[in-house]
Structures are given as C-alpha cells and as structure tokens.
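Weekly structure sync, notes
Attendees: PL (lead), two postdocs, one rotation student
Agenda item 3: pending single-chain targets
PL asked that the sequence for the first pending target be pasted directly into the notes so everyone works from the same version. It is reproduced below exactly as submitted, 260 residues in total.
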Amino acid sequence: MDQRLLSLGLPEILEEPERLAELNDEQIDLLATIRDEAADALESDESNAELIDTIYLAHMTLASALFLRAIASDVPVPDLPAAQVIARGWGGGLLLSCDADAVREIIAPRATLDVLTKAGLPAKADPELTFSMPPTRLADTIELADDDVDDASSKEFFSTFWKIGQTDDGDVVCIDERADCAVVVLDAEWGFYAQQFVNSSVGHLLQCLEAWRVLEQDDANEVDEAIERFERAVDRIDPRALTEGAFWSDVLAMLEEEED
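Predicted structure, written out during the meeting:
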C-alpha cells in the first residue's frame, strides 16, 4: 500500500466516520492525488494488484470523507415549506407520489414522508435523472456479494438505503436512513459503495431540480449570469449541496468548465 495512505490512517480510518469527516483540505487533496497517480500507473501495468488496491482505498476514502463532511457540516439547513407548497413550486411535468402504506417501513423525518406522499418526484428530470415511486429497499434491487462474510457486511451496508431513482450512468439515487434520509448517489462503477451527497432531504432535492429547470429555460444573454443565479438558488435552498464533492457542486463545476 502507498505509504501516504498509511500516514492518513488507512485502512482503519474507513471504519471511523468521525475521523473521516475531519480530514482537512490538504488530506483530501492528497487522497485525490494518490488515486490519480495510481490510475495513471495502472494504464501501463493493468494487472498490478497493488495499484488496484491503492486506487480503491484512496477513492473510497475520498468519497466517504467528502460525503461525511457534507453530512456533518454545521451550515444550517433551511427549513422546508409544507410538501404541498413544494409541489406547487414545481413547474415541470407530473409528480409521482405514493401512499402512506408504501413508506411505513422507512425510518424518516415526517417532512420526508410528507414529500414522498403529498408531493412526489418527477418521472424524469434534468440533469439526466429518472425517479420511481414508491421507494424500494436497495438491498432488494442489487446483487450482493456471494460469500457469507461479504454478504453479511453488504446487507448491513445497504440496509438503510431506499432507492428513489437513478442517473443515466446507472448510479442509484437513494435516501439514506443513517443520514436522516439525506439524498445520496451510489456509484455503480464502485459497487454502489462510493457515496456522493446530493441534498439534505428529498424536499430539498425537488426544489433544486426546479432551480435547474429554471436554469435550462433562462434566456439570459450572459450564460455566466444564469449559472450564478442557479448557484445562488441552490445555496438558498440547501447550502450543503454545494460542499466539495457533492452532486450539485460537481454539476456547477461542469457548467463552468463548459462555459470556459
């Protein structure tokens, strides 16, 4: 294993969420550097198991640290309006909701359950997302590890995720009971173990989707101004959604790169 990973406390730190959430910017950058260097080296040595392990450990640690940093952020999350008010603020297509019986097993705040049952989510929404109701247990929809030890740990890890949608790349969008039903994306390329923070709740997600829809219809002469308005809207709706590595933060970075 790369000695720099050992200096960061790997692999033990992966079992210590508090330490992961406290990794500083320099350590986060180091993880990204190690991963990228190992990935470059792997191109000329594709069967190198040590490089593969280094990439996996660095990436999983980086993803987990950024996700936990967003969850543990002390930035206040704005309160949601009533679910019916959020629904009226949606200007896109029909919202799909579900009845109360369909969500009775989800351990979630009342506001989340209200959005799922009294507002809902669109069947399709940009940026390239699809949703389905009611939420389904992720552990029931993906193939878990075969051997007894890995199977048990996989079931434990995925037991608190409820799938509400997916990306065009096949990543799944879930609410996570462990994180007070924050919305997360689980990366299919990494076996759905790599988590990315999206929003503090499904209600905040719907509001951000509306902000994106407004951005797409913005006929401003200056694209930069439209992007800035979108960023301000997301910051007003759910400032944690703009933390480093979060879904909407990455979307903004992509927009700014395309504009440049």
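Discussion points:
- Residues 3-72 form one domain.
- Strands lie at 95-96, 121-122, 124-125, 129-137, 161-167, 172-176, 182-186, 195-199.
Action: rotation student to compare against the earlier draft before next sync.
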